[in-house]
Amino acid sequence: MALKTFVKVTNISNLSDARYCAGMGVDLLGFNIDPADDQCVSPELFNEIIGWVAGPQTVGELGKVSPEILSHVDQYHLDYLQLNDLSLIDSLTEVEVPLIGKLNIGSEDDWVQLPEVFKSLQGKLELIIITCDNSELHKDLDEQLKRIAPQTDLKLVKAYDLSESSASDLDVEVFYGIELSGSQEERPGFNDYGDLMDILEVLEED
Questions:
Q1: 66-120 pLDDT, tens per residue?
Q2: Which residues lie closer than 8 Å to 68 by C-beta, 6 or more apart?
Q3: Which contiguous run of DSSP H or E holds residue 9?
Q4: Which fold, 6-202?
Q5: What is the rounded CA–CA span in Å between residue 132 and residue 143?
Q6: Distance between the two ends of the chain, CA-based, in angstroms?
Q7: What does the DSSP 8-state code read for residue 12?
Q8: Kind of pairing, strands 6-10 and 57-62?
Q9: Residue 5: how many CA atoms within 13 Å on its side-chain side?
Q10: DSSP sequence for 120-149
Q11: What are the domain boundaries of the chain?
């Protein structure tokens, strides 16, 4: 199975999601490994899930960073580490796996600063995931990123305003790929994949 574009799925917390995504050809599976978050996936559960999955690489997703957390991270066998707070990136000089960043755009002021932000992150990140919770900004943000993308070597991953049509028509001159989200199991082995299934199905190669 192959997909038309690069896909990361965040918030993987159960084997059903992991196996479904792997079967559909997803590239990266993201796990919340922040011990301060009540949705944290334990090292034991992570290793149990990964033991049954082949194909995708794994991403450990972190909020805050501290020496204690970095010790905690060592309990996972990760391909990437994701920072949801980019101000902490320079504290990770000893981390051996490649880094992924997540950046939320909440206002027009945020995107005015994007050229400088991207410049400061050059060479430090494998990917940068762009989120935007304000739907009124989505169209203008697309246009802004279209102007900025040629000025940076960063690989931009779109994690906002995604639907079957927008994912299928992704502007590959701007975005390297997309990020979707996993789901909570209704009970072991039973999931309503919803938008995740709909979008992955339209991205299947013919």
A1: 656 777 788 898 999 999 888 878 877 777 889 999 999 998 888 888 999 999 9
A2: none
A3: strand 6-10
A4: TIM Barrel (3.20.20)
A5: 14
A6: 10
A7: -
A8: unpaired
A9: 28
A10: HHTTT-SEEEEE---GGGHHHHHHHHHHHG
A11: 6-202
